[in-house]
Design a protein that fits this description.
The chain is an alpha/beta fold and 408 residues long. The protein has 16 helices and ten strands. It has helices at 21-34, 45-48, 53-60, 78-88, 103-114, 124-138, 156-167, 191-208, 212-218, 234-237, 246-257, 287-305, 312-339, 346-369, 380-386, 390-404; strands at 11-13, 37-44, 66-74, 95-99, 143-146, 175-180, 183-184, 187-188, 228-231, 263-269. A hairpin with a 2-residue loop joins strand 7 (183-184) and strand 8 (187-188). Helix 1 (21-34) crosses helix 7, helix 6 (124-138) crosses helix 16 and helix 11 runs parallel beside helix 12. 44% of the residues are buried. The mean pLDDT is 93.
Amino acid sequence: MGDFYQNGIITTLHNLSNRPIEDVEEELTRFARKRPLALILPSLFSELEGPALGHIIDEISKVPYLSEIVIGLDRANEEQFRYARSFFNKLPQHHRILWNDGPRLRALDAELQTLKLAPKEAGKGRNVWYCMGYVLASGRAESVALHDCDVVTYSREMLARLIYPVANPQFNYEFCKGFYARVADGKINGRVSRLLVTPLLRALKRVFGEIEYLQFLDSFRYPLAGEFSFRRDVLTDIRIPSDWGLEIGVLSEMQRNYANNRLCQVDIADQYDHKHQNLSLDDKNAGLSKMSIDITKSLFRKLATQGYTFNTETFRSVKATYFRIALDFVETYHNDAMMNGLQLDIHEEEMAVEMFSRNIITAGEQFLSNPMETPFIPSWSRVSSAMPEVFDRLIEAVELDHQEFMAE
């Protein structure tokens, strides 16, 4: 059971009573009559063959309040898309699959590429962006939730708690971020959030001062959570990164576009577990190593847009400050783990901290060497201005795929 303490500058909605899911769903069903609700599921085809997604779909099938489910399917050939149609066909709700590697969506993407309006690289950011475009195009929902497809501890209560803050018409929230304890199999997980993001934010505050942007990010209990919900109008002007900086990028856009009282975070699970990335100590282009570089660069870019100047000496100061703070966090988490009978390997934790500290310098070097880098995907308002028929084209491509490859 969570506590009621409010930390930082963002409202935190706790789980204080373990309210029965049936009560919450009854309310959401009532809300949905006036404010239709939808769900976005960005998925790799490999996740259809994994241990989590089948259970997730079974749980979502019981949800009574969704008007639409939008599934973004990546890395799937035609045979795999046919299989996906059958896989998701058990959903009783209205749903559509965006076959991102199919010829129709690829053709639309190619046209957007010629206009320099499409994502530059494949990945979750690109998948989410097209799903957001489809939600705008379909017009079926007023409030939307998004969560990952690899959550092995999933229950439909997670979705209900995630979407409730933007579904309740008595609330004024435009955006809600989910949080949870990354504890599973007797271990504390979430190394990038615990050992990179939080200590790096604290280090940046020591170097640059108590900037509101840094206070904002540091208010989120799990800033890298892939679960969030939003009102549909949020989608029009948001510019998201296509790399591992997606979650930080989304939060940054919310801070830029909305007052703090329109944003919140909600406790959606006592325990949460999904697939884990390799640390990749010797490969900066893979695993948590690449993730840490992309996330760090996203923070540097945002601070630069607010007028803060970086040079080699700045990055050295940030790295040294981070390293000391992060090592202190290792001790803190170790003690927390011991008190709760959990495992935490200090050696592995400190290896991660050492790699992250090196990657702060790497991210800084990349930031300085490529000042014209623009990893952000254009907003849908810009895309629709340049190609007014883009939403009709997107709907047409998805519907033609749906009709041609009918599930058996």
